[in-house]
Amino acid sequence: MRVYYHFSGYISHRIAGGAYVDCLKSLGCQVRTNPDEAGGADVAIIHDEPTNYPAIFAGIPALRSMRTIAYCVWEGTALSPYFREPLRLVSEIWTPSHFSRRSMAEHFPFVHVVPHVVRRVPASAGDLAFARSLAGLDASGAASSRFPEKRPVIFFSIVDAVNPRKNVQALLAAFSALRGRTSRPVRLLLKQYRMNFNYSGIPGVISTADNLTPGRMAALHAISSAYVSAHRAEGWGLGLSEAMAYGRPVIATGWSGNMEFMDKDNSLPIAYTLGPVSREMCSAIPLFTPDMLWADIDLEALVAAMKRVAEGRIDPQLPGRAAEITRRFGPAAVAEILRGLLEGKGGNAPAGEGEGNF
Predict the structure, then answer these.
(1) Cα–Cα distance measured from residue 353 to residue 331, given in angstroms and rounded to the nearest whole number
(2) What's the whole-number mean pLDDT along residues 351-358?
(3) Cα–Cα distance between 182 and 179 in angstroms, integer?
(4) How does the average pLDDT of the chain come out, rounded?
(5) By the 8 A CB rule, do 270 and 292 touch?
(6) DSSP secondary-structure letter at 6?
């Protein structure tokens, strides 16, 4: 089968889309990414924001006469009005979680779940040296002279401080509270994207906004004690699934797309309450509206979970169960889902599964 695969340069699209392309090639598909070659394909997969679809279809006329699949993600409890009309241009929709599928399935009949591919990327000795240096650790993993504490516990998170949905302020508040409730030295390592905020004034917080190779990102996971997220909603949560692939305890809001792969046995999902999406979010990203819901994490429960990790009071079996994600959602497993859908044999469980209730 000949597949034209279009994905934008946005970082999450590039990471997820590249993994899908590898899966398609493993199935023997001829994958084309040049728009000039789209007309020679049997099917097109458009991995981009639906708001960009009209321009994509206008620029590639061949798409209107072939089977077209939208690969997109939505993090709200109701599908954005700005997504509905563009999605009418495609034949079917693929999305990574049942949470994301539910809002789409209210408007479109052919919506299928295709999980993100979860795989471990190797980190070289140089990658690990970079990560240890950034975190202020010496070669043994103990504190360096830059940070005088001994054997600090490193909490890691990939953050977008511009986006209220990521709830970085709650994460910072929880970490600051943790520092006063444990005798263990703790640090919070942040990999920022989109915009670089200066967090140097917050004790224990280390931050970088540099563009990092996959190997260096893998090294940051490898040197960390746990990954933590106070998000309000996720369509999947790439950082969370990546951390689990490295056997790291993941502490995160127990709701939305990340519950496709998180549960009480393999991670630390945190209690929450649902409330209206804030006006701040609706102003920052008008795709969201105040009638939608998102999660407010239980801040005390988040601090308590971080303290358990800091003091070594978690189930010793948890890291191994977390790493099972690479089998459940590895390239071979996802490739078989893609094969079934491309051959018209795919199907999904009812929408609304995988949201969690903690």
Answers:
(1) 22
(2) 40
(3) 6
(4) 93
(5) no
(6) E
